[in-house]
Protein backbone atom coordinates (compact mmCIF):
# COMPACT_ATOMS: atom_id res chain seq x y z
CA UNK A 1 0.00 0.00 0.00
CA UNK A 2 1.35 3.43 -0.95
CA UNK A 3 1.23 5.83 1.91
CA UNK A 4 -0.20 9.21 1.17
CA UNK A 5 2.61 11.52 2.27
CA UNK A 6 0.03 14.15 3.19
CA UNK A 7 -1.68 11.78 5.56
CA UNK A 8 -1.28 13.35 9.03
CA UNK A 9 -0.05 10.91 11.61
CA UNK A 10 -1.68 11.95 14.92
CA UNK A 11 1.36 10.90 17.00
CA UNK A 12 3.74 13.03 14.91
CA UNK A 13 1.35 15.96 15.15
CA UNK A 14 1.10 15.58 18.89
CA UNK A 15 4.89 15.43 19.18
CA UNK A 16 5.22 18.54 17.04
CA UNK A 17 2.71 20.47 19.11
CA UNK A 18 4.25 19.42 22.43
CA UNK A 19 7.76 20.33 21.18
CA UNK A 20 6.45 23.73 20.14
CA UNK A 21 4.71 24.31 23.49
CA UNK A 22 7.87 23.14 25.27
CA UNK A 23 10.00 25.60 23.30
CA UNK A 24 7.69 28.54 24.02
CA UNK A 25 7.64 27.58 27.70
CA UNK A 26 11.46 27.39 27.83
CA UNK A 27 11.78 30.79 26.09
CA UNK A 28 9.33 32.22 28.59
CA UNK A 29 11.23 30.82 31.56
CA UNK A 30 14.52 32.15 30.18
CA UNK A 31 12.93 35.61 29.76
CA UNK A 32 11.61 35.44 33.29
CA UNK A 33 15.01 34.38 34.59
CA UNK A 34 16.75 37.19 32.68
CA UNK A 35 14.25 39.79 33.86
CA UNK A 36 14.73 38.83 37.48
CA UNK A 37 18.39 38.80 37.67
CA UNK A 38 20.00 41.12 35.15
CA UNK A 39 20.57 44.39 36.91
CA UNK A 40 21.57 47.27 34.62
CA UNK A 41 25.02 46.32 33.39
CA UNK A 42 25.62 43.93 36.22
CA UNK A 43 24.54 40.42 35.41
CA UNK A 44 23.78 38.55 38.62
CA UNK A 45 23.35 34.82 38.23
CA UNK A 46 20.13 33.49 39.71
CA UNK A 47 22.13 30.75 41.41
CA UNK A 48 24.21 33.37 43.16
CA UNK A 49 21.22 35.40 44.22
CA UNK A 50 18.95 32.60 45.32
CA UNK A 51 21.64 30.75 47.25
CA UNK A 52 23.36 33.80 48.63
CA UNK A 53 23.37 33.54 52.42
CA UNK A 54 22.03 37.10 52.72
CA UNK A 55 18.94 36.30 50.66
CA UNK A 56 18.57 32.90 52.31
CA UNK A 57 18.53 34.61 55.68
CA UNK A 58 15.92 37.12 54.50
CA UNK A 59 13.78 34.31 53.10
CA UNK A 60 14.02 32.08 56.14
CA UNK A 61 10.44 31.42 57.11
CA UNK A 62 9.46 31.86 60.73
CA UNK A 63 6.35 30.16 62.06
CA UNK A 64 3.99 31.69 64.61
CA UNK A 65 1.87 29.83 67.06
CA UNK A 66 -0.48 32.32 68.65
CA UNK A 67 -3.72 30.65 69.75
CA UNK A 68 -6.95 32.01 71.13
CA UNK A 69 -6.71 32.32 74.92
CA UNK A 70 -9.02 30.10 77.00
CA UNK A 71 -12.39 31.71 77.83
CA UNK A 72 -12.23 33.91 80.89
CA UNK A 73 -14.58 33.63 83.84
CA UNK A 74 -16.68 36.78 83.72
CA UNK A 75 -19.15 38.22 86.18
CA UNK A 76 -22.78 38.63 85.01
CA UNK A 77 -22.20 42.41 85.21
CA UNK A 78 -19.26 42.18 82.84
CA UNK A 79 -21.28 39.98 80.49
CA UNK A 80 -24.07 42.56 80.49
CA UNK A 81 -21.60 45.38 79.83
CA UNK A 82 -19.87 43.62 76.97
CA UNK A 83 -21.76 40.46 76.08
CA UNK A 84 -19.73 39.26 73.15
CA UNK A 85 -16.26 37.88 73.77
CA UNK A 86 -13.82 37.79 70.84
CA UNK A 87 -14.23 34.66 68.77
CA UNK A 88 -11.50 35.19 66.22
CA UNK A 89 -7.87 36.10 66.57
CA UNK A 90 -8.50 39.38 64.74
CA UNK A 91 -11.22 40.28 67.29
CA UNK A 92 -8.81 39.27 70.04
CA UNK A 93 -6.16 41.51 68.44
CA UNK A 94 -8.61 44.42 68.41
CA UNK A 95 -9.74 43.80 72.01
CA UNK A 96 -7.79 46.17 74.23
CA UNK A 97 -8.46 43.91 77.24
CA UNK A 98 -7.23 40.76 75.55
CA UNK A 99 -5.08 38.45 77.67
CA UNK A 100 -2.74 38.01 74.72
CA UNK A 101 -2.44 41.69 73.86
CA UNK A 102 1.26 41.69 74.83
CA UNK A 103 1.92 39.27 71.96
CA UNK A 104 0.76 41.88 69.43
CA UNK A 105 1.86 44.97 71.34
CA UNK A 106 4.86 44.06 73.51
CA UNK A 107 5.66 46.70 76.10
CA UNK A 108 8.54 49.15 76.46
CA UNK A 109 10.77 46.51 78.10
CA UNK A 110 11.24 44.79 74.76
CA UNK A 111 11.71 48.03 72.78
CA UNK A 112 14.68 48.27 70.45
CA UNK A 113 16.79 51.03 68.95
CA UNK A 114 20.20 52.68 69.25
CA UNK A 115 19.81 53.52 72.94
CA UNK A 116 18.90 49.93 73.81
CA UNK A 117 21.48 47.81 72.01
CA UNK A 118 24.28 48.48 74.49
CA UNK A 119 26.87 46.83 72.25
CA UNK A 120 25.12 43.49 72.32
CA UNK A 121 26.11 42.02 68.98
CA UNK A 122 23.24 39.60 69.03
CA UNK A 123 20.61 42.26 68.76
CA UNK A 124 22.75 44.92 67.08
CA UNK A 125 20.86 46.57 64.25
CA UNK A 126 18.13 43.98 64.21
CA UNK A 127 14.56 44.87 63.35
CA UNK A 128 11.92 43.48 65.71
CA UNK A 129 8.63 43.86 63.82
CA UNK A 130 5.85 44.91 66.20
CA UNK A 131 8.11 45.89 69.12
CA UNK A 132 8.47 49.54 70.14
CA UNK A 133 11.19 51.16 68.00
CA UNK A 134 13.16 53.94 69.66
CA UNK A 135 14.94 56.88 68.06
CA UNK A 136 18.46 58.09 68.95
CA UNK A 137 17.06 59.85 72.04
CA UNK A 138 15.29 56.75 73.30
CA UNK A 139 11.76 57.92 72.37
CA UNK A 140 9.28 55.80 70.40
CA UNK A 141 9.37 56.76 66.72
CA UNK A 142 6.27 58.67 65.56
CA UNK A 143 6.05 58.22 61.77
CA UNK A 144 2.89 56.23 61.07
CA UNK A 145 1.46 55.64 57.58
CA UNK A 146 4.89 56.76 56.49
CA UNK A 147 7.10 56.94 53.45
CA UNK A 148 10.80 57.15 52.71
CA UNK A 149 12.92 59.63 50.78
CA UNK A 150 16.54 58.99 49.91
CA UNK A 151 18.21 62.37 49.59
CA UNK A 152 21.22 62.40 47.24
CA UNK A 153 22.38 65.78 48.56
CA UNK A 154 22.70 64.85 52.22
CA UNK A 155 23.25 61.14 51.47
CA UNK A 156 20.61 60.29 54.05
CA UNK A 157 17.30 58.54 54.34
CA UNK A 158 14.31 60.51 55.63
CA UNK A 159 11.31 58.73 57.10
CA UNK A 160 8.14 60.85 57.12
CA UNK A 161 4.92 59.81 58.79
CA UNK A 162 1.95 60.77 60.93
CA UNK A 163 3.10 62.12 64.30
CA UNK A 164 0.35 60.64 66.46
CA UNK A 165 1.59 61.20 70.00
CA UNK A 166 -1.79 62.43 71.30
CA UNK A 167 -4.93 61.07 72.91
CA UNK A 168 -7.07 58.61 70.93
CA UNK A 169 -10.79 59.35 70.98
CA UNK A 170 -13.96 59.02 68.88
CA UNK A 171 -15.43 62.32 67.68
CA UNK A 172 -18.85 60.64 67.70
CA UNK A 173 -20.24 57.24 68.60
CA UNK A 174 -19.84 55.65 65.19
CA UNK A 175 -16.75 57.64 64.16
CA UNK A 176 -13.37 55.95 63.64
CA UNK A 177 -10.79 56.17 66.42
CA UNK A 178 -8.67 59.29 65.85
CA UNK A 179 -5.91 61.46 67.19
CA UNK A 180 -5.96 65.21 66.53
CA UNK A 181 -3.52 66.26 63.84
CA UNK A 182 -0.15 67.09 65.35
CA UNK A 183 1.72 67.05 62.07
CA UNK A 184 4.19 65.13 59.95
CA UNK A 185 7.14 63.64 61.83
CA UNK A 186 10.52 63.32 60.11
CA UNK A 187 13.47 61.10 61.08
CA UNK A 188 16.87 60.81 59.37
CA UNK A 189 19.23 57.86 59.09
CA UNK A 190 22.30 56.60 57.25
CA UNK A 191 21.70 52.91 57.93
CA UNK A 192 17.88 52.60 57.91
CA UNK A 193 17.93 51.44 61.54
CA UNK A 194 19.30 54.36 63.61
CA UNK A 195 16.76 57.18 63.38
CA UNK A 196 17.31 60.75 64.57
CA UNK A 197 14.19 62.80 65.23
CA UNK A 198 14.21 65.84 62.92
CA UNK A 199 10.98 67.12 64.46
CA UNK A 200 7.52 67.88 63.14
CA UNK A 201 8.22 69.24 59.65
CA UNK A 202 4.62 70.15 58.81
CA UNK A 203 2.58 71.17 61.83
CA UNK A 204 -1.18 71.22 62.50
CA UNK A 205 -3.06 74.52 62.53
CA UNK A 206 -4.16 75.18 66.10
CA UNK A 207 -6.71 77.99 65.74
CA UNK A 208 -7.98 78.58 62.17
CA UNK A 209 -10.86 76.12 61.84
CA UNK A 210 -11.13 76.70 58.09
CA UNK A 211 -7.57 75.46 57.50
CA UNK A 212 -7.17 71.96 55.96
CA UNK A 213 -4.70 71.07 58.68
CA UNK A 214 -6.78 72.33 61.58
CA UNK A 215 -6.11 69.87 64.40
CA UNK A 216 -9.67 68.48 64.33
CA UNK A 217 -9.21 67.32 60.73
CA UNK A 218 -7.23 64.36 59.37
CA UNK A 219 -3.72 64.23 57.87
CA UNK A 220 -2.61 60.76 56.79
CA UNK A 221 0.01 58.91 54.74
CA UNK A 222 2.43 61.79 53.94
CA UNK A 223 4.98 61.03 51.19
CA UNK A 224 7.87 63.25 50.06
CA UNK A 225 9.67 63.34 46.70
CA UNK A 226 12.44 65.64 45.50
CA UNK A 227 12.13 67.70 42.33
CA UNK A 228 15.61 68.21 40.86
CA UNK A 229 14.35 70.90 38.41
CA UNK A 230 12.87 73.18 41.06
CA UNK A 231 15.09 72.07 43.95
CA UNK A 232 11.97 71.62 46.11
CA UNK A 233 11.02 68.74 48.38
CA UNK A 234 7.34 68.13 47.69
CA UNK A 235 5.03 66.43 50.19
CA UNK A 236 1.70 64.86 49.18
CA UNK A 237 -0.72 63.66 51.82
CA UNK A 238 -4.32 62.59 52.43
CA UNK A 239 -6.25 65.47 54.02
CA UNK A 240 -9.74 64.99 55.29
CA UNK A 241 -12.31 66.10 57.84
CA UNK A 242 -13.00 64.01 60.93
CA UNK A 243 -15.71 62.05 59.07
CA UNK A 244 -13.56 61.34 56.02
CA UNK A 245 -15.99 63.19 53.69
CA UNK A 246 -13.59 65.84 52.35
CA UNK A 247 -11.44 63.05 50.82
CA UNK A 248 -8.74 65.23 49.22
CA UNK A 249 -5.00 65.37 48.69
CA UNK A 250 -2.84 68.11 50.18
CA UNK A 251 0.48 69.45 48.87
CA UNK A 252 3.32 71.11 50.80
CA UNK A 253 6.86 72.16 49.81
CA UNK A 254 10.21 72.82 51.42
CA UNK A 255 13.75 73.75 50.39
CA UNK A 256 15.23 71.13 52.69
CA UNK A 257 14.19 67.57 53.56
CA UNK A 258 13.83 68.52 57.21
CA UNK A 259 11.41 71.35 56.51
CA UNK A 260 9.61 73.30 57.68
CA UNK A 261 7.20 72.49 54.83
CA UNK A 262 4.85 75.21 53.61
CA UNK A 263 1.33 73.92 53.08
CA UNK A 264 0.07 74.99 49.63
CA UNK A 265 -3.44 73.67 49.10
CA UNK A 266 -5.74 70.67 48.89
CA UNK A 267 -7.64 69.36 45.90
CA UNK A 268 -9.83 66.59 44.54
CA UNK A 269 -7.45 65.08 41.97
CA UNK A 270 -9.03 64.70 38.52
CA UNK A 271 -12.25 65.89 40.16
CA UNK A 272 -12.55 62.73 42.27
CA UNK A 273 -12.52 61.83 45.96
CA UNK A 274 -9.12 60.66 47.18
CA UNK A 275 -8.39 58.81 50.42
CA UNK A 276 -5.36 56.51 50.97
CA UNK A 277 -2.65 57.57 48.56
CA UNK A 278 1.01 57.44 47.66
CA UNK A 279 3.36 59.11 45.22
CA UNK A 280 5.92 57.26 43.14
CA UNK A 281 8.89 58.88 41.37
CA UNK A 282 10.03 56.92 38.31
CA UNK A 283 13.60 56.63 36.94
CA UNK A 284 12.85 59.28 34.29
CA UNK A 285 11.80 61.70 37.08
CA UNK A 286 8.11 61.52 36.15
CA UNK A 287 6.14 61.22 39.37
CA UNK A 288 2.69 59.69 39.83
CA UNK A 289 -0.13 60.03 42.32
CA UNK A 290 -1.88 56.76 43.19
CA UNK A 291 -5.05 57.04 45.27
CA UNK A 292 -8.11 55.10 46.39
CA UNK A 293 -11.15 56.75 44.88
CA UNK A 294 -14.84 56.41 44.08
CA UNK A 295 -15.56 55.55 47.73
CA UNK A 296 -12.48 53.31 47.84
CA UNK A 297 -13.85 51.03 45.12
CA UNK A 298 -11.24 51.92 42.49
CA UNK A 299 -7.59 52.98 42.49
CA UNK A 300 -6.72 55.99 40.33
CA UNK A 301 -3.30 56.70 38.90
CA UNK A 302 -2.05 59.78 37.08
CA UNK A 303 1.21 61.64 36.46
CA UNK A 304 2.12 64.77 38.41
CA UNK A 305 3.00 67.98 36.60
CA UNK A 306 6.73 68.60 36.04
CA UNK A 307 6.99 70.70 39.22
CA UNK A 308 5.19 67.89 41.17
CA UNK A 309 2.72 70.43 42.56
CA UNK A 310 -0.38 69.25 40.70
CA UNK A 311 -1.72 66.34 38.67
CA UNK A 312 -1.80 66.13 34.86
CA UNK A 313 -5.33 65.70 33.48
CA UNK A 314 -4.82 62.09 32.29
CA UNK A 315 -5.90 59.49 34.86
CA UNK A 316 -6.39 55.73 34.64
CA UNK A 317 -8.79 53.69 36.75
CA UNK A 318 -7.17 50.47 37.94
CA UNK A 319 -8.23 47.58 40.21
CA UNK A 320 -11.78 48.59 39.38
CA UNK A 321 -14.30 47.33 41.92
CA UNK A 322 -11.58 45.66 44.00
CA UNK A 323 -11.87 48.01 47.03
CA UNK A 324 -8.16 48.40 47.76
CA UNK A 325 -6.31 50.99 49.82
CA UNK A 326 -2.86 51.73 51.31
CA UNK A 327 -1.09 51.58 47.91
CA UNK A 328 2.72 51.18 47.94
CA UNK A 329 4.44 51.22 44.53
CA UNK A 330 7.91 50.01 43.61
CA UNK A 331 9.80 49.03 40.47
CA UNK A 332 12.13 46.19 39.61
CA UNK A 333 13.64 45.42 36.23
CA UNK A 334 11.23 47.66 34.33
CA UNK A 335 8.19 46.07 35.95
CA UNK A 336 6.03 48.07 38.34
CA UNK A 337 4.68 46.43 41.46
CA UNK A 338 2.14 47.56 44.00
CA UNK A 339 1.07 46.21 47.38
CA UNK A 340 -2.41 47.18 48.55
CA UNK A 341 -4.64 46.33 51.50
CA UNK A 342 -8.37 45.77 51.76
CA UNK A 343 -10.64 48.43 53.28
CA UNK A 344 -11.43 47.58 56.92
CA UNK A 345 -10.65 50.78 58.82
CA UNK A 346 -7.90 50.23 61.39
CA UNK A 347 -8.47 46.45 61.41
CA UNK A 348 -5.91 44.32 59.56
CA UNK A 349 -6.76 42.43 56.38
CA UNK A 350 -5.10 40.54 53.54
CA UNK A 351 -2.52 42.30 51.37
CA UNK A 352 -2.37 41.79 47.62
CA UNK A 353 0.54 42.27 45.22
CA UNK A 354 -0.08 43.63 41.75
CA UNK A 355 2.19 44.08 38.71
CA UNK A 356 2.22 46.09 35.48
CA UNK A 357 4.53 46.60 32.51
CA UNK A 358 3.39 50.22 32.26
CA UNK A 359 2.65 52.21 35.40
CA UNK A 360 -0.60 53.47 33.85
CA UNK A 361 -1.73 49.86 33.52
CA UNK A 362 -3.12 47.41 32.86
CA UNK A 363 -2.35 46.13 36.37
CA UNK A 364 -2.68 42.43 37.17
CA UNK A 365 -3.24 41.03 40.64
CA UNK A 366 -0.64 38.44 41.67
CA UNK A 367 -2.02 37.37 45.04
CA UNK A 368 -1.12 37.59 48.72
CA UNK A 369 2.64 38.25 49.06
CA UNK A 370 2.89 37.21 52.73
CA UNK A 371 5.03 34.16 53.54
CA UNK A 372 5.57 32.55 56.97
CA UNK A 373 3.94 33.26 60.30
CA UNK A 374 0.80 31.16 60.03
CA UNK A 375 -2.45 31.26 58.07
CA UNK A 376 -4.02 34.01 60.15
CA UNK A 377 -0.77 36.03 60.09
CA UNK A 378 -0.67 35.79 56.31
CA UNK A 379 -4.33 36.69 55.88
CA UNK A 380 -3.92 39.83 58.01
CA UNK A 381 -0.58 41.07 56.58
CA UNK A 382 0.93 39.91 59.90
CA UNK A 383 -1.71 42.05 61.69
CA UNK A 384 -0.58 45.14 59.83
CA UNK A 385 -1.16 47.31 56.76
CA UNK A 386 1.44 48.34 54.18
CA UNK A 387 2.50 51.92 53.64
CA UNK A 388 5.70 52.02 51.53
CA UNK A 389 8.34 49.83 49.86
CA UNK A 390 12.02 50.85 49.95
CA UNK A 391 14.68 49.34 47.64
CA UNK A 392 17.28 47.42 49.63
CA UNK A 393 20.70 48.71 48.58
CA UNK A 394 22.99 45.96 47.28
CA UNK A 395 20.33 43.26 46.95
CA UNK A 396 18.85 43.09 43.43
CA UNK A 397 15.15 42.40 43.78
CA UNK A 398 15.38 43.06 47.53
CA UNK A 399 13.19 45.65 49.25
CA UNK A 400 11.89 46.59 52.68
CA UNK A 401 8.12 46.38 53.09
CA UNK A 402 7.11 49.10 55.57
CA UNK A 403 3.82 48.48 57.35
CA UNK A 404 1.83 49.74 60.34
CA UNK A 405 0.34 47.55 63.02
CA UNK A 406 -2.43 49.96 64.00
CA UNK A 407 -3.54 50.13 67.60
CA UNK A 408 -7.00 51.74 67.38
CA UNK A 409 -7.31 51.77 71.19
CA UNK A 410 -4.23 53.98 71.41
CA UNK A 411 -3.12 55.07 67.95
CA UNK A 412 0.13 56.64 69.15
CA UNK A 413 1.19 53.15 70.25
CA UNK A 414 0.75 51.71 66.74
CA UNK A 415 3.78 49.66 65.76
CA UNK A 416 5.98 49.37 62.69
CA UNK A 417 6.55 46.16 60.80
CA UNK A 418 9.46 46.34 58.45
CA UNK A 419 9.98 43.06 56.63
CA UNK A 420 12.10 41.87 53.70
CA UNK A 421 10.30 41.83 50.37
CA UNK A 422 11.87 39.83 47.54
CA UNK A 423 10.89 39.88 43.88
CA UNK A 424 11.91 36.59 42.32
CA UNK A 425 10.75 33.19 41.16
CA UNK A 426 7.61 32.46 39.20
CA UNK A 427 4.27 33.80 40.45
CA UNK A 428 1.96 31.44 42.33
CA UNK A 429 -0.49 31.03 39.50
CA UNK A 430 -0.46 31.96 35.84
CA UNK A 431 -2.65 34.94 35.06
CA UNK A 432 -5.71 34.72 32.90
CA UNK A 433 -4.20 36.85 30.19
CA UNK A 434 -0.95 34.90 30.00
CA UNK A 435 -2.16 31.70 28.30
CA UNK A 436 -1.07 29.60 31.23
CA UNK A 437 2.48 30.97 31.40
CA UNK A 438 3.75 32.84 34.44
CA UNK A 439 4.03 36.45 33.34
CA UNK A 440 5.46 38.00 36.46
CA UNK A 441 7.88 37.18 39.20
CA UNK A 442 6.58 36.33 42.65
CA UNK A 443 6.51 39.09 45.23
CA UNK A 444 7.17 37.68 48.72
CA UNK A 445 7.09 39.42 52.08
CA UNK A 446 8.73 37.16 54.67
CA UNK A 447 7.66 37.12 58.29
CA UNK A 448 10.49 37.43 60.81
CA UNK A 449 10.36 37.90 64.55
CA UNK A 450 13.72 39.58 64.13
CA UNK A 451 16.03 40.19 61.21
CA UNK A 452 18.80 42.44 60.01
CA UNK A 453 19.81 44.10 56.80
CA UNK A 454 22.63 42.50 54.77
CA UNK A 455 24.61 45.66 55.56
CA UNK A 456 24.27 44.72 59.24
CA UNK A 457 24.19 48.28 60.54
CA UNK A 458 26.88 49.76 58.30
CA UNK A 459 26.08 53.10 56.68
CA UNK A 460 24.40 52.45 53.36
CA UNK A 461 23.25 55.93 52.47
C1 LIG B 1 -7.44 52.73 56.74
C2 LIG B 1 -6.43 53.63 56.13
O1 LIG B 1 -5.50 52.88 55.43
C3 LIG B 1 -5.74 54.43 57.22
O2 LIG B 1 -4.79 55.27 56.63
C4 LIG B 1 -6.79 55.21 57.96
O3 LIG B 1 -7.43 56.09 57.08
C5 LIG B 1 -7.82 54.25 58.53
N1 LIG B 1 -8.41 53.49 57.49
C6 LIG B 1 -8.91 55.00 59.29
O4 LIG B 1 -9.90 54.12 59.71
UniProtKB/TrEMBL annotation:
Name one matching Pfam family. Glyco_hydro_43
Name the segments for region: Disordered. Answer: 65-85
- Write down the CDD domains for this protein, in alphabetical order: GH43_CtGH43-like
Q: Which InterPro entries match?
A: Glyco_hydro_43, Glyco_hydro_beta-prop_sf
The protein's UniProt keywords, in alphabetical order, are: Glycosidase, Hydrolase, Membrane, Transmembrane, Transmembrane helix
Q: Where are the transmembrane segments?
A: 12-33
Regions of compositional bias (Basic residues) in chain numbering: 70-85
The family this protein is said to belong to: Belongs to the glycosyl hydrolase 43 family.
Q: What is this protein called in UniProt?
A: Uncharacterized protein
Amino acid sequence: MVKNKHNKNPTTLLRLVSTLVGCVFMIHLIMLYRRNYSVDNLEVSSQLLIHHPIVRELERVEEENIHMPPPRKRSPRAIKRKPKRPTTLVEEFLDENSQIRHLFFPDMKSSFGPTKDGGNNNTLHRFFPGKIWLDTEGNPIQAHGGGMLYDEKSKSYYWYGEYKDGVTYHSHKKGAARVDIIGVGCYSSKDLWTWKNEGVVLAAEETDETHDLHKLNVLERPKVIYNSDTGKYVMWMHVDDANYTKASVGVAISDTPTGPFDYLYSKSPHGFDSRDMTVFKDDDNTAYLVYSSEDNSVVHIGALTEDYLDVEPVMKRIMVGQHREAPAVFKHQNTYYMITSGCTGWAPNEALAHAAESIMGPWETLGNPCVGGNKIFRSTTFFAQGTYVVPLPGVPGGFIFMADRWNPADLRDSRYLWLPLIVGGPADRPLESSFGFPMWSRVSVYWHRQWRLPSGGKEIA
